[in-house]
Amino acid sequence: MQTTAHRKFKKASLLLLALTIGLFSLSACGKSGGSKDKTTVNIAINGGLNLLTIAKKKGWFEEEFKKANADVQWNEFQSSVPLLEGLVSDRVDFSFIGDGTVVTGKAANSPFTVISVTGVEGNQNSVIVKPDSPIQSIADLKGKQIAVAKGSSGHIFLIKALQKNGMKESDVKIVQLQPDEANPAFQAGQVDAWAIWDPFVTTEVDAGRARIVESVKTMGFVAPAVMIGRDKFLKEHPDLTAIYLKVYQKAVDWVAQNVDEAADILATEKKMDKELVKKLVQNTHYINEPVTPDTAAAIQSTADILLESGTIKEKLDVSKVYDNSYFEASKK
């Protein structure tokens, strides 16, 4: 026969079990019957005058991602090398890089895929020198100190320019500097030349502080810039990837019709002269297109050159680094 104490213990145990089951059921209902967990989309601005800066100011990404229960987190990097470090540590889901960084990044097994092409003319990558410098050609760079952010599009342009003139990187003295460090060093005459991109090229030239020795245009190089996505994010959120590319297309279409306002936004955000910015915007051909055979061939050429120079150690098959299906989905 059960004692009173025994009955009380049994009753308390059953009550505790019922409470536990109830809490578990509530938790399960919250997970399966309610809204899905909110996703954070990490977008990185990779220096320069770009459409992501305009879209950020306009709030276009936030507006569209909110409809899909997603927030936006912004980051900004000086160049592609630290950007890829951010991607590896899951702080970057989408951004844009140059073809050289595509090659060096994939050679280092960075977990990204090219999802569209944002330009094919390069961002005015150039080698610049002081106006009174005796350097008149790439050949004149032999033995000279050249500031450059290693692994950046400017670095890749420099390698190509040297090779086209029968030279190697070892023929010059590379001074590893990010743009914010290289700019004052160049102006102070602490380096002989600077391998860099816009807006720095046009800013220095227009101010009378530099002249161009060679550029992607003068050398006839095709220099694709591309949009990339972090592999894990692309696989887990193809719907958000389509939204991202749709918003970027909106920015491409908008800037073509609103050059003055675009220049206003970029000049304010980058603390630059509006007329200079307007000139830069007008000289830039912003696009959002799938990877074409010609673009793929240009990136493959860069990969082959970097393999020959020893910058990468194994041949890269560029056909494996891009996927146009995300772009196609964004057009539906």
Automatic annotation (TrEMBL):
Provide the coiled-coil residue spans. none
What sequence ranges are listed for the domain Solute-binding protein family 3/N-terminal? Answer: 40-251
Any signal peptide, and if so, which residues?
1-30
Looking up PROSITE patterns in the UniProt record yields: PROKAR_LIPOPROTEIN
Q: Which SMART domains does the entry mention?
A: PBPb
Q: Where in the cell is it found?
A: Periplasm
**Hydrolase found in the keyword field:** no
State the Pfam families in the record: NMT1
**Family matches, as InterPro entries:** ABC_SsuA_sub-bd (IPR010067), Solute-binding_3/MltF_N (IPR001638), SsuA/THI5 (IPR015168)
* Protein family: Belongs to the bacterial solute-binding protein SsuA/TauA family.
List the PANTHER family: ALIPHATIC SULFONATES-BINDING PROTEIN-RELATED
Q: What is this protein called?
A: Aliphatic sulfonate ABC transporter substrate-binding protein
